[in-house]
Amino acid sequence: MGSNSSNKTPYADFGQALKQLRAQQSRTPAEVSGAVEIQESTLKAYENGVERPSEDILFLLIQHFDVSDETADKLWKLAGYHGMQSLESVFSSDDIGNVIIDSVQHANAASQPVVYTDLLQVMVNNYGVIMNFMQGAGVNGQPVAAARVGMSIEHARTVVDVLSRTIEEAEKHRTAQANKQPRQLGSGTSKHRKKNS
Predict the structure, then answer these.
(1) Which end is more exposed in the chain, N or C (fewer Cβ atoms within 10 Å of the end residue's Cβ)?
(2) Range(s) within the chain of domains with CATH label 1.10.260.40
(3) What is the CATH number of domain 12-89?
């Protein structure tokens, strides 16, 4: 990534700022690298100014440290990027370059397209859960990423619970609808029985 022979630490200012931020928040390298799903050695390379993170990893680091907009913008510029990117433009491709989102327009939910997937990859560590929703329609049958979602383990448990209950309710409703007897129309003649008293 950003290393060259004339300058062994081209991102020294960024690395120092990142290391200082981690120290201020009393986070270990293992905690930070695990939270953003990178190797500890990669984080050390960032902190030593030898390399800079990609835009998506930098965005995850900024989110992990929960810094102010001013600090986030400073880190972004120290890493050599021009201005803080939006969430939509940062998370536009997966780890192997497949486009996930070309652009996201801020509109109501009804106008947002629904992306259907048929494959799911789940990764869990001590810091959270990442789900890669994919479609098996890529070149030579290779899966293509449709969406990547990350969350805390606690939130993932809530999602599983809500999803399970929602599916259960939908299946009950479907079964009830299937068991309803269609109303039959009469033949047009009615038979009345007279009670004998």
Answers:
(1) C
(2) 12-89
(3) 1.10.260.40
Do residues 49 and 60 lie in contact, with contact meaning Cβ atoms separated by under 8 Å? no
User: Which tens digit of pLDDT belongs to each residue from 139-181?
Assistant: 666 677 777 788 888 888 888 888 898 999 889 888 888 887 6
78-93 burial: b if 16+ Cβ within 10 Å, else e: bbebeebbeeeebbbe
| DSSP assignment letter at 140 | G
Structural contact between residues 87 and 59, judged by C-beta atoms closer than 8 angstroms: yes
Question: What pTM does this model have?
Answer: 0.46
Cα end-to-end span (Å), the chain: 100
